[in-house]
Amino acid sequence: MRSTDAVGASRAQPAQTPPYWRRLAGSLVPYAYLSPTLILLIVLMVVPIVMVIGYSLMDAVITAGESHFVGMANYIEILTSGAFRTALANTFWFVAVSVVAHMLIGLGFAMLLNSEAVSAVTRTVFRTLFVLPWLLTVAIIAILWRLLLNPNGVVNAILSALGVVSGQHEWLADPDIALAAVTFINIWAGYPFFMISILAGLQGIPKDLYEAAEVDGAGAIRRFWSITLPQLRPIIISMALLDVIWTSQQFALIWMTTGGGPLNRTEMLSTFTYKLAFSEYDFSSASASAVIVLILSMILAFFYVRSQQARE
Fold first, then answer.
1. CATH number where 236 lies
2. Of the candidates 178, 192, 217, 231, which lies 20 to 30 Å from 255 by C-alpha distance?
3. What are the pLDDT digits (tens) for 247-291?
4. What span, in angstroms and rounded, lies between the C-alpha atoms of 70 and 306?
5. Which helix (H) or strand (E) holds 59?
6. How far apart are CA 16 and CA 18, in angstroms?
7. How far apart are CA 274 and CA 270, in angstroms?
8. Based on the structure, what is the number of domains in the chain?
9. Are 282 and 237 members of one domain?
10. Domain C-terminal end among 29, 47, 69
11. Is 261 helix (H, G, I), strand (E, B) or coil?
12. How far apart are CA 283 and CA 305, in angstroms?
């Protein structure tokens, strides 16, 4: 009887709580696994950002032996600069036209590749051709189009044969055409991103929706506006925000085609900041410009995260 009571009493006793230090060590285990990544992020991202913000508040950093705290003077100088406003306007035009064109061309090609009216062999050939620009690096794209748009290039030869232009035209050196030319190159290089994403979205739309709409007498245009676009809206919004972020930070394509010229007609925020730092060696103003670009990028990233949360 006593042995039974002893067993029951032992079972009734609550489990002992582990010591505090053991619980603390257990809670720190996940952070130990994340520590290499966190250290890399701090060294490669947090530290440089903090240094650039500090440089933007100083005068004559790096190049001078002694620098002084000037507060917001560098930001005021940048924001009131005519060159900065020109770069901002060019960047806005470049981004707006590129994103809209990427969306329309990508949607059109995606619907073509998803159409049952096109044979499987034709879709395979077109899919290979349409995705080729996405496979090329920025350097190859810049060199390719510089050769095509050269006064002795293929574009001038074709347009001269058609009577559109006369003589040899330097497209990337013409102040009136240079911005449109680099925008066209960026559109050609970036539309496959939209095309592939929208094509995946189209293939995920249930066919029952189209069949039910067709039974109700809805035409092709009505089905597009009532079914296709609403189903693709989350994908289009996410891709558009990503494209805005990427296009606004485009540097290599501009630098290797026009270098921001001629006459600052293709100057972007990225090339403007680069020239301040490595052409004029004004690292304080360049840091202020970089911080402004960082703030704009963070705003765009905030809206992208919000769109993703709404989509989920």
1. 1.10.3720.10
2. 192
3. 998 999 999 999 998 889 999 999 999 999 998 888 999 999 999
4. 36
5. strand 58-59
6. 6
7. 6
8. 2
9. yes
10. 69
11. coil
12. 32
User: Do 53 and 88 sit in the same domain of this protein?
Assistant: no
Q: How far is CA 185 from CA 101, 162, 188, in A?
A: 11, 22, 5
Residue type, 223: R
- Coil, helix or strand at residue 66: coil
Cα-Cα-Cα-Cα dihedral of 270, 276, 278, 282, to 10°?
-140
What is the chain's mean pLDDT, rounded?
Answer: 86
Query: Which residue range(s) make up the domain with 54?
Result: 15-69
The dihedral sign for the CA sequence 177, 148, 95, 78: negative
Question: pTM of the predicted model, to two decimals?
Answer: 0.84
What confidence category does residue 4 fall into, taking pLDDT thresholds of 50, 70 and 90?
low
In this structure, the number of other CB atoms found within 10 A of the CB of residue 102 comes to 24
Give, for 106, the enclosing helix (H) or strand (E).
helix 82-114
What residues pair up with 58 in beta bridges, in sequence order?
Answer: 69
Contact 131, 196 (CB under 8 A): yes
What are 7-41's pLDDT values in tens digits?
A: 454 454 555 666 777 777 778 888 888 889 999 99
Mark out the alpha helices in 136-268 (DSSP H runs): 138-148, 154-162, 178-203, 207-215, 220-223, 229-248, 252-257
Burial environment of residue 174 by CB neighbours within 10 A (0 to 12, 13 to 18, 19 or more): middle
What does the chain come to in residues? 312
| pLDDT at residue number 105 | 93
Is 278 in the same domain as 148? yes
Q: Are strands 68-69 and 58-59 parallel, antiparallel or unpaired?
A: antiparallel
For residues 62 and 92, membership in a common domain is answered with no
- Tell me, yes or no, whether 187 and 57 share the same domain: no
Contact assessment for residue 228 and residue 202, using Cβ atoms and an 8 Å cutoff: yes
Q: Is residue 282 one of the residues assigned to a domain?
A: yes
Q: Encoding tokens for residue 131?
A: 């995705």
Q: How far, in Å, CA of 52 to CA of 34, rounded?
A: 26
